[in-house]
Amino acid sequence: MEEKDIDPKTIRTYESDIANAIQHRQTSQASMVIASEEKKREQEKNIVIVRGNDSEAPKNRNKWLKNILMIIASLILLGAGVAVAYYFYTISPLSVRQPSTPTATSTSVIVTSIITPDLQKVLDITGQTPAGIISGVMKESQANPLPNGGILEIVMGKQASSTQNGKTSTLTRVTGPQFISMIGLVPPNALTSSLTSQWMFGFYSSPNDNSAGTTSAPFVVFTDNFFQNAFAGMLSWESTMPSDFSALFGIQPAEWSGGSFHDKLIKNKNVREFTNSDGNVLFLYSFIDNNTLVIAQNEAALGEIITRFESQAYVR
Predict the structure, then answer these.
(1) Measuring CA to CA, how many Å separate 38 from each of 35, 49, 239?
(2) Within a domain: residue 107?
(3) What is the largest CA-CA distance in the chain?
(4) Taking each helix axis from N to C terminus, what angle separates 130-143 and 176-183, rounded to the nearest 10 degrees?
(5) Residues 83 and 150 in one domain
(6) Are residues 135 and 260 in the same domain?
(7) Is the pLDDT assigned to residue 98 strictly greater than 50?
(8) Does 280 map to a domain?
(9) 59 contact partners, CB below 8 Å, separation of at least 6
(10) Domain that residue 149 falls in
(11) What is the pLDDT of residues 218-260, one digit of tens each?
(12) Does the pLDDT value for residue 61 go beyond 90?
């Protein structure tokens, strides 16, 4: 029988198997450790990448907020510029305004009442005769009745051509001296030359002596700038005043014929009353101060005018 050679490597022993197993196990453990380390490095790499992206977010947010703030600031500056331009071109005293064109129907009158009325009406007396003016104011009085003690002021105006195109017009208030001329009164020059433009015409409502209701007593208030001349002019006018005021105060020639002036004191004011032969007061006048002359139809009207005048003077 032939003997075959046996390779020593093919002879396996328990010891070699244990050695091989341990070697294989170490190799596996090493592989596992290496794989674990590689996985850990990948995770750390991913974490770095994510953190890098997170660091960009605040920068983008800050940039967005900055853009919004710039837009808001631009809008504020634009609005401020528009407001400033509007002020300088419209409201500012330095702005250039186009003159307004008056219309033919304009009835605006700048009125400063010497005493405060309860009602104020504007009456256009352009081109009217003395009789037409008197008729017009009487109609206004009848159309606007007031309770007892009330005062109605009639502001008289006349049309004047404007300077634009010569077609439009505006109503301007008649002055005191103009009223005297337009109504047909003829006072002495000493009086008319002392009168100023400010004046007032109206009606005072007082109880009707003959029937129920009230009656309207006309009155006129003038202002003067030279008391001595105005007072002298009134005294000189007394001889023709009944005739001049007969139409305005409704005095018939038979009533004032034979009448005369008398001195009287009403509310501590010196008054000159014109009474007929029966002693009835037809009209009266008084300088309630050195610059204010009142001519009224009865004592009640003069008394109310004095009361209101003094009340206003006290308030001022």
Answers:
(1) 5, 17, 136
(2) no
(3) 199
(4) 110
(5) no
(6) yes
(7) no
(8) yes
(9) none
(10) 119-315
(11) 999 999 999 999 999 999 999 999 999 999 999 988 888 889 9
(12) no
